[in-house]
Amino acid sequence: MDDRKRIFSGMRPTGRLHYGHMAGALINWVKLQNEYNCFWGIVDWHAMMSDYADPSKVKENCYEILLDWLAVGVDPEKSSIFIQSHVKQHAEIHLALSMITPLGWLQRCPTYKEQILNLQNKDLSTYAFLGYPVLMAGDILLYKSWGVPVGEDQSAHLELTREVARRFNSFYGDVFPEPETLLTPAAKMPGTDGRKMSKSYGNSLQIAEDMETIWGKVRTMKTDPARERRTDKGTPEKCPVWDVHKFFNRDAQELAELHEGCLSAGIGCVDCKKKLMVHLAEMMDPIQKRRAELAKRPDDLKQILEAGAARARRVAEGTMEDVYSAMNLIH
Ligand code: SF4
């Protein structure tokens, strides 16, 4: 029995992960797993909410995400890694919580409107999609999570989770703790075009991509527009390459030299990018080797998911007993 505080987080299996996922979540997860009882869910029901018309890639994407997680260092010995639909209680708690969640809370949810706008090529006017924050609340509350690691942009969802927990508790008694926000330290990771790194913008550096592919992308990556010619002086703070340097380059002296070299036009952007590649390779080479090795062992991957789901189910069953009992249902 692991009596450390419980933490839940998940990712939608909608494609391979990129350096932005590493900087914004995974590196933090690797640290958290040493301190907390962590439940990391590959939330396939959430993927189905947007990809219901064509689920052909969902299964494959679940394995891609799993490989990315494991390669970066998320450890199945230290945390429970599982697929959401393998723990049926996620569906049960979603139904129970949907009984008490007012429609207005969902209609007002800022990310609902944003997602509808962002994914205009998909018809998201479904019953399930409106309710996805309820499923998300269920994912968290199912483990009576003490905390949830989130980026600033997701904190509204967590607030809704707390409201749902409060409302449930006010009707039926204290079942759910209100989860704390564990704000992930912000690490800016721009894509190759300078916008936020995102698969849908086609500007991402993927964890699974080899260094040759990454160099092809970094070579043409946007820099400070003031540096049109080699002799033009630049400002690192206006350059997306610099943000990537700050994350991957741990050599403070080299960073200071590059900074100065950019300001004085002492170095060119190609030199600066080549230096970056040395640091990218240093961090990413072992990750890619691990990923390639793991990909050859599909039975081990299944085993990891089965063991993770079994551990998650043990907690989930206990929570659902409490939910049924609080709601006065015969179970
Ligand atoms: Fe960016 Fe480096 Fe070029 Fe400066 S020298 S603009 S930091 S790529």
TrEMBL record:
Kindly give the Gene3D superfamilies that the UniProt entry links to this protein.
HUPs, Tyrosyl-Transfer RNA Synthetase
Q: EC top class, in one word? A: ligase
| SUPFAM superfamilies associated with the record | Nucleotidylyl transferase
Task: Note the InterPro entries from the entry.
Answer: aa-tRNA-synth_I_CS, aa-tRNA-synth_Ic, Rossmann-like_a/b/a_fold, Trp-tRNA-ligase, Trp-tRNA_synthetase
What catalytic reaction does the record list? tRNA(Trp) + L-tryptophan + ATP = L-tryptophyl-tRNA(Trp) + AMP + diphosphate + H(+)
Q: What is its EC number?
A: 6.1.1.2
One GO cellular component from the entry? cytosol
GO BP of this protein: tryptophanyl-tRNA aminoacylation
Q: Which GO terms describe its molecular function?
A: ATP binding; tryptophan-tRNA ligase activity
Name of the protein in question: Tryptophan--tRNA ligase
